[in-house]
Amino acid sequence: MTLFDLSGKVALITGSSRGIGKAIAQQLAAHGAKVVISSRNADSCEAVAAEITAAGGTAFAHACHVGHKAELQALVEATVAKWGRVDIVVGNAATNPTFGPSLDTPDEVFQKVIHTNLLSNVWLCNMTLPAMAARRDGAVIIVSSVGGLMGSAHLGAYCISKAADMQLARNLAVEWGPHNIRVNCIAPGIIRTHFSRALWADEKRAAHFARMSPLRRLGDPDDVAGVAVLLASRAGNFITGQTLVVDGGDVIGGGEPLL
């Protein structure tokens, strides 16, 4: 268990009031980290922090809209004021307000997707990596998507933003690796969350997707959270600049595209 021990570490997770982000926060806390719960909804953040605390973990809540740079800065400052530093950053917050071909995606919608899914992660890393470098220790995990590995007739802007997140991880891994900072992506497939509900809410559709998967099921948030624990802990000390695909084998399974 010592390879996965996160005792004494401080983890800041965006978009952590539900879904994958919440599961990552819960599992990091279960492995000893102090976790910061953040999303736009303050009440939801407080509820998750209370849930983690009741389970024996350590957490506090700070609402933040990642699309607003000043709010991100305030989130980082609140974390440092509370616990002195940030050791682990998980960029999970994302948006996808459009469905359809790129031709029909208005400029302002495309810009919102890139702003939220990519630029906010750039900002957050710029706000936290220098202090990590000073301590010569840190881990960044960006939650991307299998959409970043394939084209899509309906989710073009989203997939482009998620591919960019993968390149962001590669670039930051090169820039900050000499300071003993690791930067990686996780690319989930279809995970049963509110965010992806349109893909699995219909039972027949969900069953179809499950049949196409080599593991014959859809994913659960903890399937992703376990990988986050790996990447955040000493068990992942020699992994950097990578995108770990967590999709039950969909991408390599030879079935029809899910997106």
Q: What do these coordinates show?
A:
This protein is an alpha/beta fold and 259 residues long. It is 45% helix and 14% strand. The chain is built from eight helices and seven strands; from the N terminus they run E-H-E-H-E-H-E-H-E-H-E-H-H-H-E. The protein has a seven-stranded parallel sheet, sandwiched between helices. Helix 1 links the parallel strand 1 (10-14) and strand 2 (34-38).
Strand order of the largest sheet: 3-2-1-4-5-6-7
User: Unreliable stretches, pLDDT < 50, 5 or more residues?
Assistant: none
Number of helices: 8
Q: Structural class of the secondary structure composition?
A: alpha/beta
Q: What amount of the residues lies in strands?
A: 5-15%
Radius of gyration: 17 Å
Distance between the termini: 37 Å
Query: Describe the biggest sheet?
Result: 7 strands, parallel
- Share of helix, binned: 40-55%
Averaging pLDDT over every residue, what do you get? 92
How do the helices and strands follow one another from N- to C-terminus? EHEHEHEHEHEHHHE
Large-scale geometry:
globular
Q: What is the number of beta strands?
A: 7
Which features characterize this protein?
259 residues, alpha/beta, 7-stranded parallel β-sheet, 7 strands, 45% helix
Q: What is the element layout, followed by pairings?
A:
Layout: E1 10-14, H1 19-30, E2 34-38, H2 42-54, E3 58-61, H3 69-83, E4 88-91, H4 107-135, E5 138-143, H5 156-176, E6 181-188, H6 197-200, H7 203-212, H8 221-232, E7 243-246
Parallel strand pairs: 1-2, 1-4, 2-3, 4-5, 5-6, 6-7
Helix pairs in contact: 1-8, 3-4, 4-5
